[in-house]
Amino acid sequence: MKTAGLVAATLLLSAAFAHAQAPAPAAPAAPSGPTARLAEVPDRDVFDASGAKLADIFDVVIDTEEARASYLVVSVGMRVVPVAIPSPEVSAAGDKVVLRVERSRLEGMPSLDMAALGPRYKRGRDMAGGELRDKQGVKIATVRDMVVNLVDGSVAAVVVEFDPKAWDKPGWVALPRTAVEPRGRDFVATFNLDDMRPATQAAAEQRRFELARAAAQTVDRDERASQLLGRKVVDSKFAPVGEISDLAIDTAAGRVPYLVVKTGAGNSALALPLKDLTRKDNTLVLPAGAQLGSAPGAGKRANELIGKVLVDPRGKEVGKLRDIVVNLATGKVHYAVAEFDPSWVAAGNVATIRMPRDDMKVELNALMGAMIFPGGGAWPDINNPQYLSNIDQYLARQ
Predict the structure, then answer these.
(1) 59 partner at 20 to 30 Å CA-CA among 18, 107, 207, 372?
(2) Which CATH code, of 2.40.30.10, 3.40.640.10, 2.30.30.90, 2.30.30.240, is assigned to 33-172+181-193?
(3) Beta strand 283-285 pairing with 232-234
C-alpha cells in the first residue's frame, strides 16, 4: 500500500498515530482483508475465485454514521456497481480482493444510486475535506483521507492534516479509528492533543508500561522474606484467603517448600512452586482450584532464622542473619543477607551470603565479592538486572 509519507507514531494509552517526516508503513492492516487509502482505491483490482481479474475497484461507499465502508464499488463496462461488505462472497487472498460472483451476474446487478442510499452514505472520494474538531467543537484538523479494509469495511485510520496552531508537526497524521468519533463527514477527537507522542517516545513509554504491568503480576522475582510476612493472599476471584505468617525454609536444599498462610481456621500451607501463582501489587493471587494444606510443624521457619546468630568454623559468633531473599515462582532461596562483626564488615553495613546450613556457620572468605550496602537504610533494587548479575556471579564463586 502506498504511504504518501505517513509515518507510524503513537497516541499514548491508545493506538497508533502516523505523522509525515519520512516514508514508513501507516496503520497496520486488519487480519480480515487488505487495507487501502481511499485515494488509492481506484488502483486496486478485484479477482475471481480462480485468480483472474474480474473488475476494477472504482470507489467505496462510506456510512458516515458508523464510519465504515458499507459498499465496495466496482466498475463493470460503463457502469459502477455496489457490492455490500462484509459479505460471504467477498474475501481476501493475500493483498488481493476476491469476489465470488460470475461476471454475468455482476453485469446484471443494479448501478450505484447514491440518492437511493440516503444522506448518511457518501462516496469515499467525497470524504476528503471534512473537519476534525476537539471535544469543545473547535476545528483542529482537516480530513485528507481514510484507511479502510476492503473486505470487512472497517476503518483502520482517519488521515488528517492538523492546523499548525493545534499541533505544530508538519505532514499528515493517520489517527486510529478508536481516536475519533464520526459526525457525518466530520469527526470529533476522543483524545487530547497533549497525549500525542513521537513514535519512538511512545514505543518506549508503552514498553515501560508493559514491563511495569508484568512486574506487578509476576511472582518470578526476588522477595525479602521479612517483607512477605503479612502479605495478603486472595483466591482467583480476589476473595480473601488469609495472609502469609511465615515461610518454611529448607536450608540444606536452599528451598522454600511452602508458605504458612494464616486463615480464619488457623495456619495452612501453600506448597511451592505453584503454577500460575500471580500477584496484584503486594497481594498474592492464587490460581483457580488452588488448595491449602495442613502446615507441618517440623522444619525451619523464616521467623526463627531471621536474627539467628552466625558463627565462624570455630564456633565464634561473627554476625546475625538479617533477611532471606527468595523466589516464590521457583520456590528457591536465592541468598541471605547478614550483618557481621566490624572486623569482617564495616559497622552499619550488611552483606549478601549464600544461605547458611542449619549450623549457621560462615567463613570470612565467603564475603569476597559479596554485595555490601547500608543495613539501616533503603536496600538497592534487588531485581535490577545488573544487581542480579552481580549476585549470581558472586554465588557462582562460592
Answers:
(1) 18
(2) 2.30.30.240
(3) parallel
